[in-house]
Records
---
Amino acid sequence: MAPLILRPTSPAHGGTAVARDEGKVWLVSYALPGEVVEAEPRGRQGGVAVAATTRVLEPSPHRVAAPCPYFGTCGGCQLQHATYTHQLDLKRQVVAEAWARAGLRLPPDAAVLGMEDPWRYRIRGEFEAVAEARGWRFGFHRMRSHAVLPVDSCAIHDERIERALPAFARAANELRLTGLQNLLLTVEPAGRGLLWRLRENSKGWLHDEYAHRVAELLPDAALLDDAMSLDFWDMTFRVRSDTFVQTNYRQMLVLYRAALDMLQPMPEERVLDLYAGIGTISVAVARGCRSVTAVEENPRAVQLGRLNARINSARVEYLPGKVEDVLRGVRLGQHDAVILDPPRAGCEPAAIAELVRLGAGRVVYVSCEPSTHARDIAALVRGGYRVRRAAIVDMFPQTYHIESVALLERS
Ligand SMILES: C[S@@+](CC[C@H](N)C(=O)[O-])C[C@H]1O[C@@H](n2cnc3c(N)ncnc32)[C@H](O)[C@@H]1O
């Protein structure tokens, strides 16, 4: 069979590029818009044919050699073959396209805030355990597969996480542990703390012996299995493995700054923080306003959020539960502004309806998924809001993931 020759023209969400060939649409991985590539069909994804680049016939001027030896096999990164500046351009195009599909126009002055050094940014990593002939190792899922690819390095994680992996594997081997599933590691940005959680289904799990041996193997780290500290802007937060934390600490500061600049909380105002997690945004906002009401469904995050509010002497009150339910009990006129940061799925229609009913003057919407961000913003616009500003904050360099934030005002 003749090789498939494709000419991708635009970026698609997911790190692929869109090509059309004799009327058929392809999503091509490891190709850049403007290139001519030889590609191999790889089935379908969401009803669209997928292909992987096998040879680049005419490279883009934005193409670089991916530095990671696992790139192309590992499911973690999709964009290492593009210069970082181009990655940011591609992300902007993907967001503009998502907004256009929702009937919106991304404000032309929407900034794209990238990193000075787009590597070693992750302070949290989740690794799958795999038993090999020579013992346990940790790695990532392979691209579009549940099979595990063991890794010795990962250049988007904090180096302390990379260095810790062999210690966790070696201790498991020495203690002849069985049934390891996955390992979650989070490092303190400014301290020695290394928070760990190992999921396993072994009989006779030796937690204390294991922790002791790992600690011996990692003398520079303070091994923690309960909570660690996350400090920024003179505030301190307790973080646990079972609660959300922004994985890119350096860009978290950029994102929160951008969101606060949009929100502009005033001293007499009361603010709603929806999908509040452990309260990092709530506490930061509360420093500039009268009070914050935080809504969060994860009871562990609510517990930690209340503690974080106390530690920082912040006027934050938690309403536990789902945003779409809790907002029904919130009275009109109680809040002047809203900030929200839902997971990828975005808001339930009932949550948007409640936001429209409450009609706060300003809504700052932070999102990690452009399609649901645009969908929900369009619904808010139909409910009487206008988009005032938007920004893209690159929280996930080398990968297709995109974080964006928008300010809406009641028109
Ligand atoms: C992306 S995190 C944002 C956390 C926080 N704003 C931060 O920056 O650390 C989303 C949070 O929403 C919570 N969540 C998800 N669905 C929810 C819902 N329907 N109602 C309330 N909270 C929800 C999750 O538990 C998680 O803590």
---
Amino acid sequence: MKVRIKEQVLEAILEAARIAYGNNREFMGFLRAENDVITEIVLPPNPQFNPTSASTRLDMKPLDPSIIGSVHSHPGIARPSQADLVFFSKFGRVHMIIGYPFRVQDVWIFGGGELEIVK
Ligand SMILES: [Zn+2]
């Protein structure tokens, strides 16, 4: 599976993950796509909130059919927790975890997809 994403969106996600890490937090956002390309990150209503449970995250999901999945960062390796897997199974089709140190090659895609960066 190819996950197509705008270069500037990917850069914004990686930067947000780095900033969150510096503040001892995980970054979390929803992914919005147009014509199968991820074009925007939609932040949860309260960006200070650090969601850990799947049900809490679903409460924050905007009611918007262009939202196709989620992205969040981990302070260590990008391996999904049990809560992550429950969340991924309940909503969306594209889920990404960004592991430390938050470079393009630190992006993990649920289901084993590959990033395709679109200019
Ligand atoms: Zn996680």
